[in-house]
Specification:
Protein name: General secretion pathway protein K
Subcellular location: Cell inner membrane
Largest sheet: 5 strands, antiparallel
Distance between the termini: 90 Å
Number of strands: 7
Radius of gyration: 32 Å
Family: Belongs to the GSP K family.
Main location: membrane
Structural class: alpha+beta
GO biological process, one term: protein secretion
Number of domains: 2
Order of helices and strands: HHEEEHHHHEHHEEEH
Length: 336
């Protein structure tokens, strides 16, 4: 049958439009899938870069921790024992005890910068000897009062805060000084909690105390630790940031000098940051390590965390320390 003029032309146009719409949708879907695939590939690549960066700082943290391992002291031989005994009986000077071997990097929080590549990528290493900090659990009240006052706290605030530290950690509800029950002191400040009546688990817990206002915390937090369980502090090993909170002659002041106690070099905090050429930390690792376990000299990681703060511009500049060459070799980076 002959097709009449104009018959079906409208249907042909509709079919063509439908085909075009389908093609456009297909192209759009294909483009969307391509973009999504590219984004997924980029995310996977970024995760790979981040994982490698994190593995690098984790390895660096363990290497630095191991480098802090104390050198075993040789036992005295019979000749040395006889010499010491003879010196004691004759009044002569006995041989001086051997000084501990020098450590391969500073342990007072001073930044060490290790260059990794010519483009400016570097590692920022900070180590703090916990023996140079004041322990919230081990320090007597008199020591806490003296340290808080030396850090610039008002006399009464220093007294109250030291007493509250002791009340927080002791097992009873008997206050140190003011006659008000420990829990009542918290209630008077409108705090819904009371003292733990147990040891501090972290220095940040001092913020729970009734007299711990932000200004006081800013002054004393850098001085504190919970990893130096001794009634003393080594001012010569103190973190430089903590030392800046005290007067220049603080270690010679009688109230503080009585608490000077040489560090046992048993516990250290280690922080490693991988710094890119722009000065931004791309990965970081913090570790609290110790060598005072049941087996002498055995490395034990007590805590493992990821520091969140970015370094200041001045911290990321500096020359290689002697430990940097070994660190680069361990990380399989040329010992340039």
């Amino acid at each position: 049958m002959a097709r009449r003029e104009g018959e079906g032309e409208g249907d042909d146009g509709f079919v063509l439009l439908t085909v075009l719409v389908v093609i456009v949708l297909f192209v759009g879907l294909a483009a969307s899938l391509a973009v999504k695939s590219r984004l997924l590939a980029m995310q996977a690549a970024n995760r790979g870069v981040a994982t490698r960066a994190q593995a690098r700082v984790d390895g660096a943290a363990l290497f630095v921790a191991d480098a802090l391992r104390p050198v075993p002291r040789r036992p005295l031989d019979a000749e040395a024992v006889l010499a010491a005994a003879t010196a004691g009986s004759t009044g002569a000077n006995a041989p001086a005890p051997a000084l501990p071997a020098p450590l391969p990097l500073p342990v007072d929080g001073s930044p060490v910068v290790c260059r990794l590549s010519d483009d400016g990528t570097r590692l920022l290493v900070r180590v703090v000897d916990q023996g140079g900090l004041v322990d919230l659990n081990g320090a007597p009240v008199a020591m806490l009062r003296a340290v808080f006052a030396a850090a610039g706290l008002d006399g009464q605030i220093a007294l109250r805060l030291a007493d509250e530290v002791a009340d927080f950690r002791d097992p009873d509800d008997d206050p140190q000084a003011n006659g008000v029950g420990e829990r009542a002191q918290y209630a008077q400040k409108g705090l819904p909690w009371g003292p733990r009546n147990g040891a501090f688990g972290d220095v940040g817990e001092i913020a729970q105390l009734p007299s711990a206002d932000p200004a006081a915390l800013a002054r004393i937090l850098p001085l504190l630790t919970v990893w130096n369980p001794r009634a003393g502090v080594d001012f010569t090993a103190m973190d430089v940031a903590a030392r800046a909170r005290l007067a220049a002659d603080a270690a010679r002041q009688p109230d503080l000098a009585r608490w000077q106690l040489a560090s046992e070099r048993g516990r250290f905090s280690v922080e490693i940051r991988l710094i890119d050429p722009r000065g931004v930390a791309k990965a970081a690792r913090g570790a609290l390590v110790g060598f005072d376990g049941d087996t002498p000299g055995e490395l034990r990681v007590q805590r493992w965390w990821r520091p969140l703060s970015q370094p200041s511009s001045g911290e990321t500049e500096g020359n290689d320390a002697p430990v940097c060459g070994s660190l680069r070799r361990v990380l399989d980076i040329g010992g340039r």
